[in-house]
Design brief:
alpha/beta, globular
Length: about 240
């Protein structure tokens, strides 16, 4: 069966790696994600990943309590590298060749981010995990996902979350919240749906990169998304 996409960017929040824990990394969840990524790569799909760090440190939250915002964001970037290396280990334990590229120089543990090298790794069927965000404070890892997707010419961004799509209200607070099947970039911006920050949405709109939002906790959803099944919500022109 033919896949719907040949090169994807998977955006994982730090909270996704936390599972049901209150803090840190759940090895069971990381192993499950690695298995799903392996299933996708077995179909010949090239996979790049941007991972957040909210399970370890949140720069915005720390800044709100008095920490310098730029410093807090740099600490958050380091947290994303911790997650990236953990995910790399889980993938390599099941024989999936993986490279971590960091936007902040950490030569002992990760390659520097180099666009052409990242593309070459993908062409050689290696999973590439981008750590340290964009390397700049004041930018989210959602914006990093949009930026890296544009740079490597990914066909889609898969935003794997804890909810099964985009709603018109928080389904935790409002049981009557409506889930959207499709939205435009302008819908997301004008309705302030906050699935990704406005900079990320604008980047995706400018480069015509669809965003698919789905529930990571449902086994097999990454594979279903790659195969083009209608899961979650898709944002496009």
């Amino acid at each position: 069966m033919t896949t719907a996409y040949q090169r994807i960017l998977l955006k994982l929040s730090g909270e996704a790696l936390m599972g049901n824990l209150g803090y840190g990394i759940d090895p069971t969840v990381v192993h499950s994600i690695a298995q799903e990524v392996a299933q996708v790569t077995s179909k010949g799909v090239q996979v790049a990943i941007v991972v957040g760090g909210g399970n370890i440190f949140r720069g915005v939250k720390a800044a709100s309590k008095g920490m310098d915002r730029a410093t807090a964001d740099y600490v958050g970037m380091i947290a994303t590298v911790m997650n990236a290396i953990t995910l790399q280990d889980a993938l390599e334990q099941i024989d999936i060749p993986t490279r971590v590229q960091s936007a902040i120089s950490m030569q002992e543990i990760a390659e520097p981010y180099i666009r052409r090298r990242a593309i070459r790794h993908l062409e050689k069927s290696r999973v590439v995990i981008f750590g340290a965000g964009s390397g700049n404070p004041f930018f989210t890892t959602d914006t990093t996902a949009a930026l890296r997707a544009a740079e490597i010419e990914a066909q889609v961004i898969f935003k794997a979350t804890k909810v099964d799509g985009i709603y018109d209200a928080d389904p935790k607070d409002n049981p009557q919240a409506k889930r959207y099947d499709t939205l435009t970039y302008n819908d997301v911006l004008t309705q302030d749906l906050r699935v990704m920050d406005s900079t990320a949405i604008a980047l995706c709109k400018e480069n015509n990169i669809p965003i698919m939002v789905f529930d990571l906790s449902v086994a097999g959803n990454i594979y279903r998304a790659v195969m083009g099944e209608a899961i979650g919500t898709i944002v496009r022109t």
